[in-house]
Amino acid sequence: MSQSLSLPEDGASTVIATVTATVAPHADPLSALAQWLLSHRKVLVLTGAGISTASGIPDYRDDAGVRRGRLPIQGSEFRQSEAARKRYWARSMLGWPRLAQALPNAAHQALAQLQAAGHLGAILTQNVDGLHQQAGSRDVLELHGSIHAVRCLACGTPYGRAEIQAQLERSNPAFAQLQAEVLPDGDAQLEPDADAAFHVPACTACGGMLQPDVVFFGDGVPATRSAQAEALTGDCDAMLVVGSSLMVLSGFRFARMAAAAGKPVAAINRGRTRADELLAFKLQEDAESVLPRLAARLLSQPPS
Questions:
Q1: N or C, which terminus of the chain has less Cβ within 10 Å?
Q2: What is the pTM of this model?
Q3: Marked catalytic residue, from 40, 144, 148, 199
Q4: Is 26 a catalytic residue?
Q5: Greater pLDDT, 173 or 180
């Protein structure tokens, strides 16, 4: 049996938490979450776009889990269509610099502190922004890759995204002056057909097709990485979801796997999640509000 609790008025928003019967009935949700973490030794953290919005990186979905805006370019479309590659790289040229300048926010920093103190285990992230590593977190598995890396599909040569940005700006000087609305994951809004004359980057080693080292929509997570994520899920004794609606199966399946194995899953997420019925505990609030307060409570206590 579960019950609903309201967070004391030390935050800006109303928060409801669903807590299993093992949590003290009169505890406030923040204390209950702290108690929950202390009662598990190997908590796997699964993060999504909601943890990075306070760093200025837009997310994909609203609080109801509904996708905003147009559908992204599919992986097969990128690889098969020159027009799609022009569209992707033109938008990326304008959107990536903002993402590259983003800094970890208080939520990233709090997770790194909690991990360093032994209260959290590895981090499995759906994000491609690299902000967990910037904040000092270790044992981070980037489920969908990194937007800061590029590879040649022909010869496998790796590139830093900054190197490709320089190539894009040299080949497309007129685009460097454009202003565009920033979209999730280094994308940007461009008018239709604005990219018709855009020059896409090519591998300097073999002339082959370059692709950002991320999992495009419609593509699957690489088998080796998927196996690593499955191993982390199998090895944990609880899972904490932060800033993810889990609407994408590549993330949801790990929460489902943990719950099916009898491991409790908790979530800090402003809106609904696909796993709401599986959750033992949920705080509906922004991660950058909850996690620093959680860290302040726990850092003075040794892990259980």
A1: N
A2: 0.83
A3: 144
A4: no
A5: 173
